[in-house]
């Protein structure tokens, strides 16, 4: 017979710290409510400090940088990290939507990303949504001042790098899970007054456009 | 009129130096390092010989042709601003420089602490700040 005490439940005073709200939310959240008890649909007052986010993202880049060879590898790694966020964001945003539905057309899912995703992540819409004039299967979503990389200055030897590869990963995950498989990359496209302007380039798979053709 | 800015790390190494006035004589990069190291030593001595215990060390150095204001952060980084002797309200400016530093240097993943600062956005922010001052 096994000793039943080996399966003893954790005592009540060893409360799991991760489920209690941290002191950083003091003044904005009711401290007696744990993160898991908060209403998923209430976003007001649940914003995260930009400094905290910037430091966390900075550490993520430094972590990724130690484990890659070259810029492309680093962007791929950031893309993977973003992918995990995107999977969850789609679920959350559809859940928060007043009349949720599954997008089936290319333009409506892109508009969802341009508006709902950007509002959910950054509190504002993306600045533009364009269709490529050169390639049928390419679309671009641009942000004039990407919040996530606001404080990041990329050194000259890495000038090809755009840390918004993370956001590209988020977008790719959303498109993937909504059955619009695509390749998504981030590029710096500065214009007057917005030196950090970033374009998220979306290249859909062939099957997506074929299906779109059938739905017309 | 702001003449120049020096940022010295906690070990006495110069991590950032920039002149904002045209008429300043250019020194060799080694000389700037020596200057920073010397000031670091002077600062350490002044905090030790102070009659008051736990002195923060030299804060202002006023000369006939310039004024030097030093602020030390909690981590031991020193910001030196060299201005003309009549300049007022340097504290406000120092605070804004520290603000830029904590945003565009410390939050930049490509910056290594205690190493020379290379950040385009920090440079641009300083240029804007000094031109407005």
TrEMBL record, chain A:
| Region span, Disordered | 1-28
Q: What InterPro entries does the entry give?
A: NO_sig/Golgi_transp_ligand-bd (IPR024096), TRAPP-I_su5 (IPR016696), TRAPP_component (IPR007194)
Question: Where does it live in the cell?
Answer: Endoplasmic reticulum; Golgi apparatus, cis-Golgi network
For this protein, the record's Pfam families field holds: TRAPP
List the keywords (alphabetical): Endoplasmic reticulum, ER-Golgi transport, Golgi apparatus, Transport
Which intervals carry biased composition (Low complexity)?
1-22
Which Gene Ontology BP annotations are present?
Answer: endoplasmic reticulum to Golgi vesicle-mediated transport
Output the Gene Ontology cellular-component terms.
endoplasmic reticulum; TRAPPI protein complex; TRAPPII protein complex; TRAPPIII protein complex
**Keyword Transport (UniProt):** yes
* Matching CDD domains: TRAPPC5_Trs31
The subunit field of the Swiss-Prot or TrEMBL record says: Part of the multisubunit TRAPP (transport protein particle) complex.
Q: What's this protein's family per the entry?
A: Belongs to the TRAPP small subunits family. BET3 subfamily.
Specify the protein name: Trafficking protein particle complex subunit
Question: From what organism does this protein derive?
Answer: Umbelopsis ramanniana AG
Q: What is the lineage of its organism?
A: Eukaryota, Fungi, Fungi incertae sedis, Mucoromycota, Mucoromycotina
UniProtKB/TrEMBL annotation, chain B:
Tell me one GO biological process term: endoplasmic reticulum to Golgi vesicle-mediated transport
**InterPro entries attached to this UniProt entry:** Longin-like_dom_sf (IPR011012), TRAPPC (IPR007233)
State the SMART domains in the record. Sybindin
Pfam families in the record: Sybindin
Q: Which domain of life is it from?
A: Eukaryota
GO CC term (a single one): endoplasmic reticulum
Gene3D superfamilies tied to this protein: 3.30.450.70
Report whether Endoplasmic reticulum shows up as a keyword of the record: yes
Arranged from A to Z, the UniProt key words for this protein are: Endoplasmic reticulum, ER-Golgi transport, Golgi apparatus, Transport
Name the predominant localization. endoplasmic reticulum
Its localization reads: Endoplasmic reticulum; Golgi apparatus, cis-Golgi network; Golgi apparatus
Similarity comment: family membership: Belongs to the TRAPP small subunits family. TRAPPC4 subfamily.
**Assembly description:** Part of the multisubunit transport protein particle (TRAPP) complex.
Q: What is this protein called?
A: Trafficking protein particle complex subunit
Q: Which species does the entry assign this protein to?
A: Umbelopsis vinacea
- What lineage is on file? Eukaryota, Fungi, Fungi incertae sedis, Mucoromycota, Mucoromycotina
């Amino acid at each position: 017979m096994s000793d039943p005490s080996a399966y003893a439940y954790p005592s009540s005073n060893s409360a799991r710290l991760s489920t209690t709200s941290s002191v950083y939310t003091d003044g904005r959240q009711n401290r007696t409510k744990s993160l898991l008890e908060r209403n998923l649909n209430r976003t007001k007052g649940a914003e995260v400090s930009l400094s905290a986010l910037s430091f966390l993202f900075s550490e993520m880049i430094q972590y990724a940088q130690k484990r890659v060879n070259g810029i492309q590898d680093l962007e791929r790694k950031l893309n993977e990290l973003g992918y995990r966020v995107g999977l969850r964001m789609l679920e959350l945003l559809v859940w928060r939507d007043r009349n949720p539905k599954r997008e089936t057309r290319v333009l409506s899912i892109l508009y969802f990303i341009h508006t709902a995703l950007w509002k959910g992540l950054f509190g504002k819409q993306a600045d533009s949504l364009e269709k490529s004039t050169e390639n049928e299967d390419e679309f671009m979503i641009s942000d004039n001042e990407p919040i996530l990389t606001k404080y990041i200055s990329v050194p000259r030897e890495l000038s090809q790098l755009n840390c918004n590869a993370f956001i590209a990963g988020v977008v790719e995950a959303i498109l993937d899970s909504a059955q619009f498989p695509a390749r998504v990359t981030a590029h710096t496209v500065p214009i007057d007054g917005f030196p950090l302007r970033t374009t998220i380039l979306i290249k859909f798979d062939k099957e997506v456009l074929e299906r779109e053709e059938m739905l017309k | 009129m702001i003449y120049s800015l020096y940022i010295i790390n906690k070990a006495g190494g110069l991590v950032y130096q920039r002149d904002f006035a045209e008429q300043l004589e250019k020194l060799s990069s080694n000389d700037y390092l020596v200057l920073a190291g010397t000031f670091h030593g002077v600062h350490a001595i002044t905090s030790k010989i102070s009659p008051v215990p736990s002195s923060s060390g030299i804060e202002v150095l006023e000369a006939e042709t310039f004024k030097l204001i030093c602020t030390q952060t909690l981590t031991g980084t020193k910001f030196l601003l060299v201005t003309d002797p009549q300049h007022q309200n340097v504290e406000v400016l120092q605070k804004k420089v520290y603000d830029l530093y904590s945003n565009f240097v410390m939050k930049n993943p490509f910056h290594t602490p205690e190493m020379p600062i290379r950040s385009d956005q920090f440079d641009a922010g300083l240029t804007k700040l000094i031109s407005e001052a």
